[in-house]
Amino acid sequence: MRRPWLVIFLSLLLLWLLVTQLNHYLAVWRVYLFAGGLFVTYAALQLPLRSGLTASLLAGLLCDANSPVPPGTHLLLFAAAHAVVFHLRDRIPRDQTLTRVIIALLANLALFLVFSFVLIGLSPAPAVIWPRLIFDLVCSQVFIALVAPWFFALQTRALELAATGRRSRY
Amino acid sequence: MPPRFDQARPFVTLGVVVAIWLLLPVVIKGGLRISFFELQAPVSVSASYLRDLQEYWGLRVHSKPELIAAGRDLARANAAFELASQQNTEFLAEIRRLENLLQVPAHTDYRFEHVRVVRRDFSGWWQRLIIRKGKNYGIPVGAPVVFTGGVVGRVVEVRAYTAVVELISSPNLRLAAVIEGDTRPMSFQGGLNPTFGPAKAVIEFVPLDIFASAAATRRLVTSGLGGVFPPGLTLGQVVKIEPSTDGLFKTGEVLLDPRLGELTEVTVLVPLNPS
User: Fold this and answer.
1) ipTM of this complex prediction, to 2 decimal places
2) Which chain A residues are within 8 Å of B195, Cβ to Cβ?
């Protein structure tokens, strides 16, 4: 397959749409889901460095375009998370779903905390905002734990279908 | 490839990515941002149209007696608004006459652009709405956005056929406000958004002789200073005021309208004479 990064990026676009629609409905209760960990985990664990990093960077650009953050915030954070997970992937059983879910949860936790420390300065009362952020983090982790197995299976299947489609053409 | 370099390869690549990003001209970064926003815009807009269709089919299940009752209530509301509209015309003519007489600058006139909400994006870090009109309807950056409960926010980004509204509950939005019936301005900033509760904002530089509590709230309105928001639009209710640490002013807490979290349609006030 020549362009696995494109297949993974399209799946990440679907994930982004799903999360934004959920956040739209959850806004009534002022709950927010952050799924940054899911954007990098599969690409970092399964794809070669170049194509995996390309998918993560594109996902970072997509999230940057839809957030009022300094340009490149998501891009650089996703790139850093991708590099760390890629560095560790040979030491862990990366083909197991449970391992992937745990990595996604840890990556999401790290990204959420870094993101919060970067943006907390904008709030007029940073100490007051932390309970809300912690509640959002807990909800996000539960969401990832529930959705990650399906999403990883979707990405695996999408890559298989793309490879099959390509083989059948020749 | 030596094993040591193989271990460091992801981090070397990360360093290269960081270096490229830092060296990339701002124009290209801006172009990428706009491109990726426009890439997903049709998807979000389609989802909002589907939501509207779902709402339409939901409304179709209402019985005829319910629709007749709603129509009757609407006719009564229309009659009341018709009367208010006639009074407003008289008041506007009076204001024009006084402005001419006193030779004061005229108030900014606005065109009302009613817009459906594509997406609500309310995190602890920011509070934004994506709306379904943009450059195609002449929406300008900085235009005030209102709803029946008062101010929603301000347009911060305008794209081809969508725009982004920063809500007054967002920590990124500051504006000048006054207590209703008072002319002294104070600083208003959003940013306290607890889970399962209405959003709150903070006011600073409140004069020492202003008092408010949860039992005796005061209405906070826009001051008209800065030229973005017309004066007198509701921002929220001041529920707490306490002396600030410097002792020169007070600070306070403002309870925002709980309907801000459920908006499906808003009105953009497009200035008719932007100069």
Assistant:
1) 0.87
2) 29-31, 131-132, 135-136
